[in-house]
Every structure is written in C-alpha cells, then in structure tokens.
Amino acid sequence: MRHFPIMLDLQGARALVLGQGDMAQREAAMLREAGADVRMDFRFAPALLEGCALAIGVDAPEAELVALSLAARAARIPVNIAGRPDLCSFTRPPRDPVPFVWPAETVFLVGAGPGDAELLTLRARHLLGEADVILHDRLIGGSVLSLARPDAERVFVGKARANHRMPQDEINALLIRLARAGRRVLRLKGGDPFIFGRGGEEVEALARAGIAVEIVPGVTAALACAAQMGIPLTHRDVARSVTFVTGHTQDGRLDLDFATLAQSRATLAVYMGIASLPQLRDGLLAEGFDPATPAILIERGGSPALRSLRGTLDRLVAEAPAWSSGGPTLTLIGAVVGRGVAREAEAVAA
Fold first, then answer.
1. Sheet holding 153-156, edge to edge
2. Catalytic (active site) residue 137
3. Catalytic residue among 41, 132, 159, 282
4. Which SS3 state, helix, strand or coil, does residue 80 take?
5. Per-residue model confidence (pLDDT) at position 146
6. CATH class for domain 222-349?
7. What is the pTM of this model?
8. Is 106-219 CATH 3.10.150.10?
9. Of 59, 116, 137, 192, which residue is the catalytic one?
10. pLDDT in tens, 213-233
11. 257 an active-site residue?
C-alpha cells in the first residue's frame, strides 16, 4: 500500500487553492465546509504557502501547477494537483454527492472479495469507513480491515472446516443485538455474501427480527481465481455455462448431482473442496466423466500468495495432500482450464 489512509482535521487551518473557475470554487467550498481558512489565487508565488496545512491545484496553467507542487513538497505541505497524480503527494477518495446517513437498525451485509483490498467495491470501501462495529470472517485480510475507522470495533466470527469459532445462530443473534443497540453494523464476508457464505441465513434471521438489511455484492472466489490465472470461465468454443458447487460434505458424504455434472459441458467451480476431492473424482468418473478433462487447484486465489496445481482429477487427488498448505482452495474443472494463460504463480506450486 503506497498511500497511508488519513483524514485531516482542518478546523482553523489555512489551505491554498490555486486555480480559477467552477472546479476551484468547489474545492474551496469543500475545504471551508471542513473548517479551513481558504486562500485562493490563480498565479503561484511561494508566499502563498506560508502557514498552509494543505494545498490544492486545479484549472491553472501547467507551469503554475508544477511550481506549486515542487514548492509544497519541498516545504512538506501536502499537495494535490487535480488529474496529475505525478504532481501529488496525497490522493483523495471519490466524494459522495449526497452525505451518507446510516439508517437506524440496519445491517449492511458486505462481500469483501477474495482478500485484496483493491478488489473491493467502492460501496464496500465507503461502508468500512462508516461502521461502528464490523463482524468479519477469517478470510478477511488486513489490507481490507485497515480501511475501517480506527475506533471501529472488530469482532472475529470466522469459521474453518470443523472449527466454528462462533456458531451461526450466535452470529445472527449478535447482529440483531448490535443493530437494536443503535450500532452501525457491518457484516463483512469473504467473496460474495450469497455464494456459499451463509448470507441467506443471516438475512432471514434479521428479517424475522424486523432488522433491515442492505446487501453489497463482492467478487467471488471463482471469478478472482480464474481472472488471476487467465482462465476464461466460459468460452464460446468449449463452455457456454459455469456451475458453482460446494465441496463441503454432509455427514461425510459429498451430496452432488454427479450425473448432471458429468454430462454437462459447463465449467465446474468447486468451493472448499480439497478434502473431498477423492469423492468428487469418483462421483464424476462413475457417471462417465472424461478422466482426461483438465483441472486445476488454486490456493489463496485473488492474493499475491496464489499457488496452483494443474492436471487431471487423478493427478490432483494424488498430489493435493502433500501440495496443500492449508489455505482456501478452489477447484476448476473443464476444457477452459486448458485454454488458460499460464501464470508465473504456478511455479510456486512445488
């Protein structure tokens, strides 16, 4: 992360806006709204920076903007030149056109994507900066949580296979209790809340309690993994659809419609299925699935720590136990895997 997120208290501080026209006036108005004493000019002179805590340049001649940037940087005064990141010492998030007011007794159910903060939606980033309390899963990375308010309460409610830190009914009850207490509650879930994330159960529990819910979608693992590996989930020549299934077992049994999956030409994306991979292979092959079909295991997809293992299902079953490092893993199966662009990350597979 190159830039450190920060919000400045400009009450009574002096700020410079260099420029003219509507954009410059809007910048000055926003600074005044934040309590700053704004100085405006069209031509730059070093004396304009005296006593300034911040400088912004917009709609001024190039030479003037460059001079402002150089002088402000030399004086260690934060400077932003609109549309010129090369001249800026700080960046600014998009400004909401309408001030956001968190509705009373509302929970936001937000998808955090695969773990990379750069893959968050703008809505998710905004809500992270507004929430009083964040209930988050184990797959939520530090780069995502760093976008929360420093004083926001963080509650870890993560689950791993056969190891639930907080049972689902307790999570539901906590969401309801916090919302009724007037807290601004954000339920942050890895990937997308409605794809194998039990988001539907949480929405139903909140609805029964009369708590309003807004859903913010996230980038699900299949999309992030496939994109990072250069694998098209669909391809007009070999796959016109994609099927998402869970590899979690019920009473030790993988409950999937193997006959339908084996006969379909769809790309198969299996979530959380590394432990049940032998059952998946046996079930598919028993229904006539082609044993030569390309497949790939992708561990920690959507992050710089991605690892992958390509081969047939037989190879993956044989090598997965020794290959896996215990991270979240997605399995992609289908002809599209053979069409993917090899990534350097695969070299880490050993």
1. 153-156, 133-136, 185-189, 106-111, 212-216
2. yes
3. 159
4. strand
5. 84
6. alpha beta
7. 0.72
8. no
9. 137
10. 999 999 999 999 999 999 999
11. no
